[in-house]
C-alpha cells in the first residue's frame, strides 16, 4: 500500500520533473562553485572521517536516523552508517566539533544544506532508489575507497543506468532523483562525504517551493532531535 508520504513525494517529483530537465550528472562550476574547496582538502577530510570511524559503533545506521529509509538501509546484515554534521540547514554542533576542517568548509559554503560522512560496510549494497525532489542536488566526494585488482575503485555508483567509479579525492555532482544504487565490492568500509546543495537557477515559483520544502524538512530534523545522535 502506498503511504501518504510516498504519494506526496511522487507528486512533488512530477512538479519538478516537468520544469527541470537537466541531466543526471551536473557541472560543479555551474551548480556548486565551492566544490573545489572540498576536493582540495580531501586528505584532511579523510583524516577527520577516519577519526570518527575509530568509534564507528556510536555512528547511527541510516534507518536509525530515518526509519522510513529501512528498505534501503536495513535491507541486509551490513551497515550503512551516517555521521550527520548538518541536515536541511540544521547544524549539529556536537558533530561539527569532531571535524573542524570540514565544519569550516561547510560554514563557508551557504548553499550546503546537509553534510554527512557516509560509512558503507564491506559488501554492502544500497538498492535502487530516488531522492525526493530536484530542488536539492547531491555532491559526492570519495575519502576512503578501496581499489580492486585492476586498480579501479571498488565502490560502484550506478546512476540512471550508467556506472560511476569514484575513488579517493574523486567527486561527482548529480541529481539524486534519478534512479541510483551503490555497491561496496571490497572488504573494507567505504567512506564518502555527501553534501546536499541548494539548486540554483530554478524558476521563481520552484525556488519558493523549494524553500518551503527545505524549511519543513529542517523542522522535521529538529523534531527528531538529530543532535542526540553523535559520537561520544
Binned strand content: 25-35%
CATH-scheme architecture? Sandwich
Radius of gyration: 17 Å
Biggest sheet: strand arrangement: 2-1-3-10-5-8
Q: Could you tell me the mean pLDDT?
A: 92
Q: In which range does the helix fraction lie? A: 25-40%
Mind telling me the CATH class?
Mainly Beta
Shape annotation: globular
Strand count, sense and barrel status of the largest sheet are: 6 strands, antiparallel
User: What is the overall number of helices?
Assistant: 9
Measured distance between first and last alpha carbons: 39 Å
Reported by name, the CATH topology is: Jelly Rolls
Q: Keyphrases for this structure?
A:
Jelly Rolls; 34% helix; 10 strands; alpha+beta; 9 helices
Amino acid at each position: 500500500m502506498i503511504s501518504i508520504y510516498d504519494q506526496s513525494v511522487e507528486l512533488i517529483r512530477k512538479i519538478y520533473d516537468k520544469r527541470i530537465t537537466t541531466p543526471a550528472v551536473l557541472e560543479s562550476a555551474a551548480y556548486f562553485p565551492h566544490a573545489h574547496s572540498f576536493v582540495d582538502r580531501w586528505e584532511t577530510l579523510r583524516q577527520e572521517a577516519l577519526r570518527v570511524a575509530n568509534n564507528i559503533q556510536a555512528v547511527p545506521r541510516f534507518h536509525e536516523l530515518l526509519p522510513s529509509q529501512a528498505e534501503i538501509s536495513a535491507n541486509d546484515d551490513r551497515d550503512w552508517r551516517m555521521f550527520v554534521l548538518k541536515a536541511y540547514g540544521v547544524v549539529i554542533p556536537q558533530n561539527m566539533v569532531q571535524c573542524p576542517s570540514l565544519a569550516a568548509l561547510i560554514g563557508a559554503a551557504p548553499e550546503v544544506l546537509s553534510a554527512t560522512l557516509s560509512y558503507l560496510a564491506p559488501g554492502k549494497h544500497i538498492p535502487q532508489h530516488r531522492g525526493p525532489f530536484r530542488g536539492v542536488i547531491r555532491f559526492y566526494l570519495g575519502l576512503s575507497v578501496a581499489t580492486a585488482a585492476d586498480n579501479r575503485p571498488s565502490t560502484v555508483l550506478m546512476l540512471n543506468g550508467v556506472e560511476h567509479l569514484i575513488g579517493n579525492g574523486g567527486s561527482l555532482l548529480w541529481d539524486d532523483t534519478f534512479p541510483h544504487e551503490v555497491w561496496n565490492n571490497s572488504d573494507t568500509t567505504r567512506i564518502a562525504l555527501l553534501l546536499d546543495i541548494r539548486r540554483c537557477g530554478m524558476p521563481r515559483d520552484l525556488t519558493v517551493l523549494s524553500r518551503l520544502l527545505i524549511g519543513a524538512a529542517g523542522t522535521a530534523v529538529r523534531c527528531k532531535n538529530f543532535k542526540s545522535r553523535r559520537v561520544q
